[in-house]
Amino acid sequence: MGKRQVSVTRTVGTTPDKIFELLLDPAKHALIDGSGSVRAARPGGPQRLELGSKFGMEMKIGASYKIDNTVVEFEENRLIAWRHFNGHRWRWALKPVDGGKTEITETFDWSTAKAPYLIGISPFPRKNKDGIEKTLARLAEMFPG
Predict the structure, then answer these.
(1) pLDDT by residue (tens digit) across 43-97?
(2) How much is the pTM?
(3) What is the CA radius of gyration of the chain?
(4) Could you give the residue ranges of the DSSP H alpha helices within 10-111?
(5) How far apart are CA 138 and CA 145, in angstroms?
């Protein structure tokens, strides 16, 4: 974990392909989001993400807003990351482990942001870490093992 990143890792009771299918479908992101900020995929976007995909989400942190994302890293069933307009990234790394389980690491990375210092002094790194922990707990409930 870098200086301008927060990550959480957890093992869940299913294979990487099952988790990856959830991540590839923006319409399913609200189902797994533990932060409470992801509301829905915006209409007209892709139903399945791939490298270079652009997709929008309906969000709410206090006020409602829309965010556009671009998939910037992609390895089938192993890795996906998308970048927001400000340059910060959300990254998911999946690693198969014994017993048909998956080690998931979700990372909020603001080292690539246009103004990383401002994000670093904001409450977002701490709040995002809490949200990541809740997201991974939600996935563990969906896929007990």
Answers:
(1) 999 999 999 999 999 999 989 999 999 999 999 999 999 999 899 999 999 999 9
(2) 0.92
(3) 14
(4) 16-24, 29-32
(5) 13
State how far the alpha carbon of 75 is from the alpha carbons of 24, 37, 40, 97, in Å. 11, 26, 24, 17
Domain span including residue 86: 5-142
CA–CA separation, 66 and 132 (whole Å): 20
The domain tally of the chain equals: 1
Buried b (16+ CB within 10 A) or exposed e, 87-126: bbbbbbbbeeeeeebbebbbbbbbebbeebeebeeeebbe
Q: Strands, E, within 28-123: which ranges?
A: 38-41, 54-61, 63-75, 79-84, 89-97, 101-109
Q: What is the CATH number of the domain that holds 109?
A: 3.30.530.20
Alpha helix positions (H), 82-123 = 116-121
CB contact at 8 A, 5 and 126: no
Burial label, 63 (beta-carbon count in 10 A; 0-12, 13-18, 19+): exposed
115: amino acid identity, one letter: A
